[in-house]
Design brief:
The N and C termini lie far apart (about 50 Å). The protein is of the alpha/beta class. Strand 7 and strand 8 form a beta hairpin. The chain is built from seven helices and eight strands. Strands 1, 2, 3, 4, 5 and 6 form a six-stranded mixed sheet that branches. A two-stranded antiparallel sheet has the order 7-8. The protein has one domain (about 1-270).
Length: about 270
């Protein structure tokens, strides 16, 4: 049994090295269709480098807040349609996914403080709530968990998009919705507090390419009862381990290259949040 577990974890971390953030070389090339002139591109390139370096330093002393989905609309819709069994199945599946996500971050993430909350409390967090919304490892809100860090970034399962927006000043960021076409299937995407995905060179996503088989069952507490739930291969615990471990490693590497970086350009400061 021990030998089998060792083999799993050796394979896990070998695979993790493949399932990580990748920066496209095309991002460093002037593309005339997207910029009016080379000077405009140079300004954007300078801005995104400065902002990324600032963000990783702020995150080191701040917090990563993992946003977990509830599929509330789908589940309530199924119940209204009289499909109670299917609704229960979907509720158990999303809770199992969330449980594995929490377990992975708890075990393999140590770059900064980390907190967990349900997406239904996104507006509450953005409006300044720092307690009463955060979850314990059983996915239950614990009023005693308080986020004292002023700076935070969001992490969640999502696709990476060819974003419809560039850098937005903070005084207008909350009014701007990000759109775009999905370009990469990611296991984790990092976003600012307004829900806009970050930009290169910040390591803001982990690709979803692991082939680890993983544990097929996860025990989830729902309504005070522990229920064993079967999960798809792509959502299994060991895959979450690989993704979170990769994210932690790339945060650490990026930070080591720009530790204590400060922004002095007054033109960039409105974009630091």
């Amino acid at each position: 049994m021990v030998q089998s577990l060792n083999k799993i974890f050796i394979f896990l971390f070998f695979t993790a090295s493949l399932d990580v953030f990748s920066q496209s070389n095309a991002d460093n090339v002037f593309r005339p269709k997207e910029y009016k002139d080379s000077k405009q591109f140079e300004n954007f390139y300078k801005r995104r480098n400065a902002i990324s370096k600032w963000q990783i330093n702020q995150l080191k002393n701040g917090a990563l807040v993992v946003r977990l989905q509830t599929n509330k609309t789908l589940i309530e819709g199924l119940r209204k349609m009289g499909k109670a069994d299917l609704a229960t199945q979907k509720e158990q599946e999303i809770m199992a996914f969330n449980k594995n996500m929490v377990m992975a971050f708890t075990r393999y993430y140590n770059f900064s403080k980390v907190y967990f909350f349900f997406s239904t409390n996104s507006d509450t967090l953005l409006k300044g709530a720092r307690s009463g919304i955060f979850l314990d490892t059983n996915l239950i809100v614990n009023p005693e968990i308080e986020m004292k860090e002023s700076f935070y970034l969001l992490a969640e399962r999502d696709d990476v998009y060819n974003s419809s927006i560039g850098f937005i000043r903070e005084d207008t960021a909350k009014f701007v919705k990000e759109n775009g076409n999905a370009s990469k299937d990611a296991s984790l995407v990092i976003k600012n507090k307004y829900g806009h995905q970050l930009k290169d060179p910040f390591p803001f996503f982990v690709t979803n390419k692991s082939t680890i088989t993983g544990t097929p069952i996860v025990n989830v507490m729902i309504g005070g009862v522990i229920i064993p739930v079967a999960v798809e291969k792509k959502n299994r615990l060991e895959r979450h381990y690989a993704y979170v471990s990769s994210l932690n490693k790339y945060f650490t590497k990026f930070h080591s290259e720009y530790t204590n970086y400060e922004v002095n350009d007054p033109e960039i400061k409105p974009f630091l949040y």
